[in-house]
Amino acid sequence: MSLYTSKYELKVSFEDLDPMYIVWHGNYLRYLEQARCDLLSKLNYTYLDMKNDGFAYPIAKLRVKYIKPAQFMDNLVVVLDVKSLEPTLDIKYKIFNKDSNEKIFEAETMQICYDVKLGKSVYTAPISLQKAIKEAQG
Fold it and tell me: Cis before residue 19, ω within 30 degrees of 0?
């Protein structure tokens, strides 16, 4: 079950390529971060809002699977599925080539809510994030 699904589109730029003229493997993680920022913007609860509320969400666990390389000028779509907010923020990702609709990458992240003021992990989502997800669900 998904709490919320979002899509983020991007075009592979020349600077993303490695010497073999395919997307360097580390750039996929950057694509995930761009998609997470976009997701939070769509929820109207950005990283700045999170910071102002006194929370951070560092990644505690990351699993990736490279399926097929992306190339220069490919149009990509990152699909994010928020699977849970508590006790951890769990998100599944799939990256597709928009033109061929081929899945080229998938990943999962587990993020822990960290209360900056207390200096420790907490296992409940900030009220603002809970509200943002509920509003987005309709």
Answer: no
All structural domains of the chain with their residue ranges: 4-121
* Pair 82, 89: CB distance under 8 Å: yes
Tens of pLDDT, residues 44-88: 999 999 999 999 999 999 999 999 999 999 999 999 999 999 999
What CA–CA distance (Å, rounded) separates 92 from 95?
Answer: 10
Q: 112, 60 in Cβ contact below 8 A?
A: yes
Helix (H, G, I), strand (E, B) or coil at 85: coil
CATH number for region 4-121: 3.10.129.10
| Residue in this structure with the two tokens 């149009």, named with its chain if needed | 75
Closest alpha carbon to 60 in 102, 7, 10, 123: 123
